[in-house]
Amino acid sequence: MNLSKIARRAALLSGLLGLFGSFAAPVHALEIKLPQETSQLKASTLAGYQSANSWCVMCHSLDYVNTQPPMSAAFWSAEVTKMVKVYGAPIPEDQVKLISEYLGKTYGTDQK
Fold first, then answer.
1. In a domain, 22, yes or no
2. Residue 23 gets which letter from DSSP?
3. Which tens digit of pLDDT belongs to each residue from 23-73?
4. CATH number, domain at 60?
5. Ramachandran region of residue 79, left (φ > 0), alpha (ψ -120 to 50) or beta?
6. Interior/surface letters 22-38, b for 16+ CB within 10 angstroms, e for the rest
7. Backbone torsions φ then ψ of 59, nearest 5 degrees
């Protein structure tokens, strides 16, 4: 096949693609509106309550936090540390222990 045949076929293909492309439906921006958050963390006087309300909800819905199985503060410490080191959660180091204790004592196996 010589170069002029290739050029003609490329031009024909380009024209057909342009013609069929003009029949495509216009693209509109998709708008998604999420409902207001209605869930709440269990209130507590523990310092980690405010920290969890500030930091956990950056990535997780409160329903997600509320429905976790009961685990110890040590488990939660490992989880929160993983979120910081592996997933890049911007939780300050001094807040990890506070959040872990709150989750362990309020939702987990450290409840009294």
1. no
2. T
3. 666 778 889 898 887 889 999 999 999 999 999 989 998 888 888 899 999
4. 1.10.760.10
5. alpha
6. eeeeeeeeeeeeeeeee
7. -120, -25
